[in-house]
Each structure stands twice: as C-alpha cells, then as structure tokens.
Amino acid sequence: MFTQAKRIDTAFRHVRAFTMLVVVGSVTVASLAVYQSYQLARQHQQTVYILAGGKVLEAYASERGENIPVEARDHVATFHRLFFTLSPDDKAIQANLSRALYLADGSAKSQYDALKESGFYTGIIAGNISQEIVLDSVVVDLNRSPYYFRCNALQRIIRPTSLVSRKLVTEGYLRPLARSDRNPHGFLIEKWKILENQDLHIQTR
Question: Which DSSP state fits 178?
Fold first, then answer.
C-alpha cells in the first residue's frame, strides 16, 4: 500500500513537472510571437504603398530632417514649373497658376498681377503661344532658416513663327510650415524675385 502511494506521488510530481514545462514553453512561445508581431507592425508602419499607373510602389517613411534638401529643391522646381509652364488655354493657365500661388507668398502674387495687368496671359492665348521651362539648377542654402535659394532655368517660348530661348534666374527664401494637400512639401516661397529674364536666341520655324 505504501509502495503504491509512493508511486502515485512520484507520478504526480512527474505530471506537475511536465505541466510546468508545457506552461513555461507556451508562455515563451507566446511572448516571442507577440514580440515578433510588434516588430513586424512597426516595420510596416514605416512603409507606405502607392498605387501609380496600375502598379503598386513601395515607399518608406523617414524623419523630415533627412529629406529637407531634396524636398526644398523639389518645392522650388515645382513652383517654377507651374508658374512658367503656359499654354494658349485660359483654364490651363489658371489651373497651373492657382496651384503655384499656394506654394509662395504675396511676392509671387505681385508678379502674377503685374503680368496679368500688362496683358501677358491674354497675349499667350490670342497668339497661340506655348511656354515651357527647363530647370538647370536649384541651389538651396540650408544653414539658416528661412532658406535662401537660387534657381537657374531655360524658358522656351513657342510661337507659330518662332522659337525663343530665354535665360531665367530667380531667387527667394523658403520658410518651413505645416504640410497640406495643396502644399505637400511644407515650404512657403518668400521674397521671390526674377533677377534675369533675357533672350538667348530666336529660331525661325
């Protein structure tokens, strides 16, 4: 009888030890699964998927400080493309200029108003003239905010009878501000000036 009780006690100890081992193993596996899930979730939070032209593109989130030089140059380039790309279509001109003016302060609006008052845009439409811009360089000084920039570009004015190439040089300052749908880079162009805008050559068509 005593021997049988001892066997039962030994068997109970074995079962208890086995149960504890299973519990510890289960807790360890569950903890590792939770940790890996957390790490995977953090990794996916840094990834953005963009649908463009029927293709899924992967983009990675990063701190703004890492991208300031690229975003600043692209902001200046985008503004100049919108402001100086014109076609003989009033709606197209207004669409481009309204987008451009969200990227700059009153200095750009003043330039627009002066061109409008002089009949520049009316002449573009009446003369079936197109204007394109090719950016040569955008230099931004990031040592002090607001950031000074200088833009060098080539304007191509396409008339029915001629093709005019013009040198364009502008300067201004970039002030950081909150991003928005209309200003995705989060910069505002201030004190924008056209330093040089002169013909380089005229080609007869």
Answer: -
